[in-house]
Amino acid sequence: MKRIITICASLIFSLVSVNAQDLDAKYGVDLLKPGTAAPEIVINKDGGKMNLLEENKGKYLVLNFWASWCGDCRKELKYLRSINRTYAATDSIEIIGYSFDNEKSAWKKCIKDSALVWQHYLSEIPMRNSRVKRDYHVGWIPTTYIIDKEGKVILATVVIDKVIAKLKEIAPNVRPDYLPLESLIAPEKKKKK
After folding, report:
1. Whole-prediction pTM value?
2. What angle (nearest 5°) sits at the alpha carbon of residue 160, between those of residues 158 and 166?
């Protein structure tokens, strides 16, 4: 019986792994390649302009392109919360969310309701016309890039498992935050007993 369970578990893991690979092969083909200089993102902030990558230079950046209306993006948020809890104390890895939301109020509500405590920025231009979308070759969301301390792409993917694996390579001495799934649910969403 144990052998049958082991075989079934292996088969399921293999299918999930193949599916994850297929997602990048299908949706991530045109993403920037490792070694490419990450394009600067200019943000309007406090009445002026801010160069997002320059402001965060010297850190590894996990740059996540998403939107609150995107179901796959919403599913991924629990993993990003776990990544943030795991690596926030390192001061060398920073998560940045860049949203293509159409409505600022929906974007803000999602950030609040989902307890997303890292840096967030909203595209002021619809996704289809966005220079950032074009510069980063974003054809599917969620898309995540990891950018190294020198501003070069080291990973571009639509698969969150690849992000987690790469972060383990970057910071192997950091103990990952493997909490039970219910702990990944935003605090205000948990049912009160």
Report:
1. 0.81
2. 105
27-51 residue pLDDT tens: 999 999 999 999 999 998 877 899 9
DSSP one-letter string for 38-102: PPP-EEEETTEEEEHHHHTTTSEEEEEEE-TT-HHHHHHHHHHHHHHHHHGGGSSEEEEEEE--S
Please name which of 79, 106, 81 lies closest in space to residue 164, comparing C-alpha atoms: 79
Q: Omega before 142 cis (within 30°)?
A: yes
Tokens 């088969």 — which residue?
11
Write the single-letter amino acid at 88: A
**Fold topology of 31-188:** Glutaredoxin (3.40.30)
Where are the domains positioned within the chain? 31-188
User: Phi and psi at residue 106, in whole multiples of 5°?
Assistant: -65, -40
| Residue ranges of the chain whose pLDDT lies below 50 | 6, 8-9, 11-18, 179-186, 188-193
DSSP label of 33: P
Which backbone phi and psi does 37 adopt, to 5 degrees? Answer: -65, 130
pLDDT in tens, 150-174: 999 999 999 999 999 999 999 988 8
